[in-house]
Amino acid sequence: MITITKQAAEQIKLSQQGDNSGMKLRIAALRKVNGDIHYAMGFDDTGREKDSSYTCDGIEIVIAIESSELLKDVTVDYVELEPGDFQFIFSNPQDQQHSFSTAD
Q: pLDDT confidence of 14, banded at 50, 70, 90?
């Protein structure tokens, strides 16, 4: 299961306003050839039959079956990496090469 920090949840809820209102947050992960894990997030209003979905801190999340194993026990946070540069990061115990990765 994915954990979303308070800071990340606040930013996601802000992003869900306007055109994204009512959409679920889709989180995806893919292991690259070199072993790195690539993450992506976006809002989705379509859904797929095999998606898993649940609510975390008031945010509806959907995950494709292909990503579910790579996202197990992931924490999504929203941090200031450099002054004025805020980004979502993924902390994943399965990603031995990086302590965290940023979303694209």
A: very high
Q: Phi and psi (nearest 5°) for 48?
A: -135, 155
- Average pLDDT along the chain: 87
* β pairing state of 52-56 and 85-91: unpaired
What pLDDT score does 100 carry? 55
Above 60 in pLDDT, residue 101?
no
Element (H, E) at 85: strand 85-91
One DSSP character per residue, 19-82 reads GGTTPEEEEEEEE-TTS-EEEEEEEESS--TT-EEEEETTEEEEE-HHHHTTTTT-EEEEEEEE
d(CA 2, CA 88): 14
pLDDT of the residue at 93: 87
- Round to the nearest angstrom and report the end-to-end CA distance of the chain: 21
Give the whole-angstrom CA distance, residue 38 versus residue 3.
18
